[in-house]
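Lecture 7 notes: from sequence to structure.

We start with a single chain of 378 residues. Read the sequence below before looking at the structure.
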Amino acid sequence: MKFTLIAEQLFDGEAFHRDVPVTIEDGLIDSLDTASGAKEIRYPGTLVPGFIDVQVNGGGGALFNSSPTVACIETIGKAHARFGTTGFLPTLITDDVQVMAKAADAVASAVAQKSAGVLGVHFEGPHLSVPKKGVHPQGFIREITEAELAIFCRQDLGIRVVTLAPENVSPEVIRLLVESGVKVCLGHSNADYDTVVAALAAGATGFTHLYNAMSPLGSREPGVVGAAIESETAWCGLIVDGHHVHPAAARVALRAKPRGKVMLVTDAMPPVGMDDETSFELFGTQVLRVGDRLNAVTGELAGCVLDMATAVENSVKMLGLPLGEALRMASLYPAEFLGIAESVGRLAVGQRADLVLLDNQHKVLANYIAGNAVYVRP
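Now the structure, written as tokens:
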């Protein structure tokens, strides 16, 4: 089926344009022009590249750790589609190896079935630092073994991201993971600067939720934060919800890092898309929602009630970023981190037709994944 979308404004990943038609056929952008015989759909608002979220624990009332199944992944994807996410990594936090194996099987099935938006999997743990564990269950934090390596190195999981603490995983193992195609992120770590630099030299390319759960930047010990900000090649995920990172700290990172190396992430939990959900259970601990903040009853921040559209809006309002740059942080830059920018992250001929329509308040009016409308606001 061939059809043409025409919005008042289009952002192609670099610049804004007026009244540019986008013709879609077989799930791809066929042309930036009208096509003879193609059905035309006209929209108000701005058409932008779909958002890509590399850290999604839950949504729609579902938590991947609690239900590592294809049905759970699809529930999460549907919840986030309302907020412009067209590609995501279901994220499993620290857990038992049997749960990891079930999660891997579910992701493999979702990838094979081409479930909407599923790009792969993110294992956040279990090889983390106890002092920087956050809400990750200490009883499951452990040294890496052949069992976990076998899961991480599976080739049927789509894009694989693993977050680990470099003081607990050697550069040799990091190099092995990278050679297997895993994208290694550093996080939940109390490592010193030199240990982080060694991990980067071994092939680590990312930092999970910059500033949070990592040794801070100090004058004599730069820590994980200092190494992350200094690196010209590594990407940093940033949670812009007004709770995890002070806007001034976020602006410091954006000014220090090369353009394109900071990307928006949600670290989303089950309440996303569930306005009436105020609490949920995480490893036997109650997590309470108060407004747009989640805290375990023990006090720690416990992920987010954040979606990508709100992260974009917050980046404009809280950080003072131009809308175009905020949109790139939600689409192009995560695509570059994941190594898929040749197919998603821009609106250009030959790219997959992952498109989001925003109103003038940057709220989602419609979401298309591979040319299929997965959400249209009533």
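The CA atoms of residues 95 and 140 lie 6 Å apart. Keep this in mind for problem set 3.
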